[in-house]
C-alpha cells in the first residue's frame, strides 16, 4: 500500500488521538527500511482503546511499542476519571511488557519513546530457543515477564533469532516459518476476555488455532493479514 495514501486514510484518527505527537510520521517515512505499517499501528491503537486494555504483552519491539504505550496512557487517564473504579486484581495496570531477541532493536525503540511513555514500558531481552509442543516443532522465548496480560501482540521473533535444532531441524532454514508456542504455555492461566493479535505469521496463527484448548473466538482478516483470538468464557468472579 502507498504510504501517503495510508497516512491520508488514517489522518483523522491520527490527529484526533494526537499520534503525530508521539511519532514523527514524516521523518520515519523518509527511511523506507524503518517505515511502519500505518494500518497496523492504527488498528492496534483502536483495539486497545476500544477494549480498555490494562496489561499488554508484546513479542517484537518497534513503533508498535510506542503506539500501544500511548493507548495505555489514554486508557489510564480514562480510568482515573471514573467516579467509581471497579475493583480489579491487577498489579500492572496500564503497563506494557515488550520482549525481543534483539538488544539492538530494544535500544533503538527506547530512544524513540517520549520520556512520559517510557515509564510505562518494560523492555525485556530474551533468547529464543527451538522446542516442541506435543511433538511439534516450534520455539519459545527463554525468559518471559511474570504477568497475566489481557492483550497479547505477536510480531516476533525473527526466525533467524531462534537458536538450536531438533533432529537437525532448525529455523535457520529460510523456507521454515516461525512457530511461536509461548501463548500455548500461558494458555491455562489466561483470563476470560484475553485478546491475542497475530500480525501476519499465518502459519503460526494456524498452529495456535489447532492447539489452543479453550474457547477462543478466532477471526482471520486476510486483507489486513492479521488473525485475532478472543477468549470467550464467563468471568472468574468479581475481580475478573
Your description of this structure?
The chain has 240 residues and is α/β, with parallel strands linked by helices. Helices cover 34% and strands 21% of the residues. It contains eight helices and ten strands. The chain has helices spanning 3-16, 25-29, 38-51, 63-81, 103-112, 115-118, 182-186, 202-211; strands at residues 55-59, 95-100, 121-125, 128-133, 136-141, 151-154, 162-163, 195-199, 216-221, 226-231. The protein has a seven-stranded mixed sheet, with helices on both faces. Strand 4 and strand 5 (136-141) form a beta hairpin. Helix 3 (38-51) packs parallel to helix 4. The longest helix has 19 residues, at 63-81. The radius of gyration is 18 Å and the shape is globular. The protein starts with a helix and ends in a 9-residue tail after the last strand. The mean pLDDT is 92.
